[in-house]
Amino acid sequence: MYLGLRILTRTLVLAALTIAPARAHVEEIVTPEKLWGEWSLEPFMLILLASTSWLYIRGVRRLWAKAGRGRGVPFARVLCFAGGQAALIIALISPLDSLGGTLLSAHMAQHGLLAGVAPPLLVLGRPDAAFAWALTPFWTTGSLATVWRSVSRLERALSTPMRATVLYGIAMWLWHAPALFGAAVAHDWVHALQHLSFFVSALLFWRGLLHARSVGRSAGAAAAAFITFMHTGLLGGLITIAPEPLYSAYVGRTESWGLSALADQQLAGLLMWVPLGAPYVAAGLLLGARVFRGDHDEGVAPVSSVPTGGSMGRETAL
User: What Cα–Cα distance (Å) separates residue 104 from each residue in 61, 249, 286?
Assistant: First the structure.
């Protein structure tokens, strides 16, 4: 029964040690004619997405077998997780990843998927519950349990709405500074670090918002959502109205798409300013409505229970 887990663990370790991280974007220009041949089929990313999907499905099936179909992780949550994984595939596997080396606007759309679309969907999918069930009994015994508890404490400490908002904001503003953005475009390891910081800080941010259960925490989460909407909108606005190209790596690469480097930059800024701000507004409005209604214990409850000794443990809120 555990052979698959052992094989999966060894495969992931081997992949992490031997396969290069995400490609930097300074490569051959992607023209409209070449676009659909530019899939980024990097083994490490394929293994990572496939393994997390497998673990999630395994955990949900085990949980449903014990608690009843649709309990613990309802069907709607499973669809959310699938949507989050699909967003990651579009961002990291589809031709959008390669196009990000030619168009700044495509690169901005990729960042929007990594920070504003995939993370909230994944958090809504309750992967912590599914992974806990998938990895039982390894999750609850020995050194893995100790590591997991330490990581969980750190995650809870960093994902309070305001702390997570600060971390997320720092990541957004730092990485869109021209010097750091240019380094990410030019160097593989910087590019991988950029994507990782966007994704991790966004997971903490959305966890803080979507796990807000009391009226007080919902008010703080609503404020965090609107603060994030305002500062990311400001950043997008500054990129849009800049009188000259800020990111020199894209100069001379956009013409095959009928755009100058400045027009492409303006489009990228508008993407950050308007459509990529929509998730923050939606979250802020929903949380604000909860505050005005005086709702308690709604939304995504943090999953603190872990199956122990083959039993279901304390059932989490739906």
Answer: 41, 9, 32
For tokens 């000259």, the residue is: 244
pLDDT of residue 213: 77
Structure confidence at residue 141 (pLDDT):
66
Asked if residue 107 is part of any domain, the answer here is: yes
Q: How many domains does the chain have?
A: 1
State residue 27 phi and psi, 5-degree precision.
-145, -165
Expressed as residue numbers, the domain containing 200 is: 3-139+154-293
**Is 306 part of any domain?**
no
Residue 308, strand partner residues: 311
Count of other CB atoms within 10 angstroms of residue 36: 9
- Cα distance between residue 50 and residue 256, in whole Å: 35
Least Cα distance to 100 among 204, 189, 42, 23 occurs for: 23
SS3 for 145-198, per residue?
HHHHHHHHHHHHHHCCHHHHHHHHHHHHHHHCCHHHHHHHHHCHHHHHHHHHHH
Contacts made by residues 63-72, CB under 8 angstroms, sequence distance 24+: 63/129, 63/130, 63/133, 63/307, 63/312, 66/307, 66/311, 66/312, 67/312, 67/315, 71/315, 71/318, 72/129, 72/312, 72/315, 72/316, 72/318
Q: Single out the residue of 231, 295, 311, 318 nearest to residue 65, CA to CA.
A: 311
Structure tokens at 140: 């609850």
DSSP state of 308: B
The per-residue pLDDT for range 100-123, each reduced to its tens digit, is 999 999 999 999 999 999 999 999
Residue 316 maps to a domain? no
> Is residue 147 a part of any domain in this protein?
no
pLDDT tens for 149-203 read 787 888 888 989 999 999 999 999 999 999 999 999 988 899 999 999 999 999 9
The letter for the amino acid at 162 is M
